[in-house]
Amino acid sequence: MSDYFARDRRFWLPVAYAVPIGLMAGGAGLLFTRAVGRATNWLWPDEVDNSFLGGELWWLALTVTAGVLVGLLRRWLQVPSEPKGALENIAAAHVDQRSAVPMIAVSFVSIVGGASLGPFDAGTRSGGAIGEWFSDRVDADDDIRQVNTLVGINGAVGGLLTSPFLATLLITEMNPPQGAEKYHRVVAPSLVGSVFGFFVVWSFVGATFLDVFKVPSYDVEIWHFGVALGLGVVAAFLSRLLGATVFVIRRWVTRIPNTVVRAGIGGLAIGVIAVCFPLTLGSGKAQLPDMIAQADALGAWLLVGVVLAKIVAMATSLATGFIGGPVMPTLFVGGAAGVATHAIIPDLPIALTLSCLLVAVPGASIKAPFSMALLAALTIGVGPIAVAPAGVAVLTAYLLTTGLGLFSTILPGKTADPDNPANVSYQEQLFEMRDTRPQRRT
Questions:
Q1: 357, 222, 340, 214: which is closest to 277 by C-alpha?
Q2: What is the pLDDT of residue 316?
């Protein structure tokens, strides 16, 4: 009987394994983020002029150098030309141990070099690889191996988000177990791993993800839910625009056969965008609080430009060979759109527009509406009632993109066949659309 799953030894084994796996995964995530933080602080200036053309020309040399290094590392370390991304690894509950370390190294250079990507990919990859490695040590069967991989991913993400319950909810939405019994057999060990990963990071950092993007609170009124519905439509459009931009740029850059040249051109493009719109530099976690604080000074149309420029910068980063996570940059796109909406329509509370778009854009993109709604409450500091409009926005965006398939981009000469992946710019996984044309070898 499924009601007695906890009396089975096969339930308790993964729970016991989750403790060392979570500790190691949290430690790996901590080492990566600390190394990225130190290198970023050493290379990039502390204070930046965030106005239009406020960047420095020497940034171009740094981003181009990073691009060339990314291309060389991918060649020297034999990184797969089309590696599976973090979302694919989570969905498959599998991480290739052989390519994990090389890809983490490339991700480090990518993020430090100013690419519009975050640590989510390296975190999930390191945690998953640790789970796979541990399974080899204990000779686990396929079912327990998959659980151990997800436990490692949870341990790393629990440390990255410094919020274990949010991490487990996020990973569970990306890889929902089928059946009530399997749900408990997967989620319970995952939460244990997430808690212990959080414990490692909390012990050294002593800070959480709470109130990272704090804004003034507001009193919810009935008409705010109508606004949230409209913001959900905007978020769905931005999500599809992001996917379409990745696809279009990827189709163009694949014509460049040399991976080093391709990544170098990508680095140049990222640098030019950053010089014009300095807020687009990096993952966006450090830039979003500055943008919120300087919203009035920056002005509405500059903020709109930042949204569009960030989409192009992120798409260029993904398409030209840089490696990193899409979650934080997508949060930035949503957050910037929320701040821009408030700047355009000041009568809309910034807490309303920011909370709605901050979570609705990634909620639609990574198919995790519930964890994104919780993220609004945790990172913006709005109460349980004030987070309700954000829930409406993320659900609207999610249903429009995933449930109804709207805002898909039909390519020239193609028919609107949703079963043909060559027709739609954004399909099963975030930014994982592949060009179906034969590719030349590098």
A1: 340
A2: 95
Two tokens at 256? Answer: 């460049």
What is the residue-averaged pLDDT of the chain? 86
List the beta strands (DSSP E) in 38-149: none
Range of the domain at 96: 11-205
Query: pLDDT at residue 19 above 90?
Result: yes
- Answer yes or no: is 410 within a domain: no
Handedness of CA 119, 120, 125, 128 (dihedral sign): positive
Distance CA 172, CA 190 (A): 9
Rounded to 10 degrees, what is the CA torsion of 121, 124, 129, 132?
Answer: -140
Residue 1 pLDDT more than 80?
A: no
Cα separation, 285 vs 283, whole angstroms: 6
| Phi and psi, residue 49, nearest 5° | -80, 110
φ, ψ of residue 381 in degrees (nearest 5): 85, 15
pLDDT, residue 61, reads 96
The length of the chain in residues reads 442
Q: Cα–Cα distance between 166 and 182 in angstroms, integer?
A: 20
pLDDT at 8: 74
End-to-end CA distance of the chain: 55
Q: How many CB atoms lie within 10 A of CB 384?
A: 7
- One domain, residues 236 and 319: yes
pLDDT per residue as tens digits for the range 207-265: 666 657 777 778 889 999 999 999 999 999 999 999 899 889 988 988 898 999 999 99
Token output for 156 = 């790393």
Check whether 434 has a pLDDT greater than 50.
no
Q: Which amino acid is at 71?
A: G
pLDDT value for 209: 63
> Which CATH number do you get for residue 104?
1.10.3080.10
> What amino acid is encoded at 345 in this protein?
I
> CA 284 to CA 293: how far, in whole Å?
14
Q: Which residues are paired to 325 by β-bridges?
A: 118
The structural domain count of the chain equals 2
Specify whether the CB–CB gap between 358 and 232 falls below 8 A: no
Euclidean distance between CA atoms 273 and 235, whole angstroms: 22
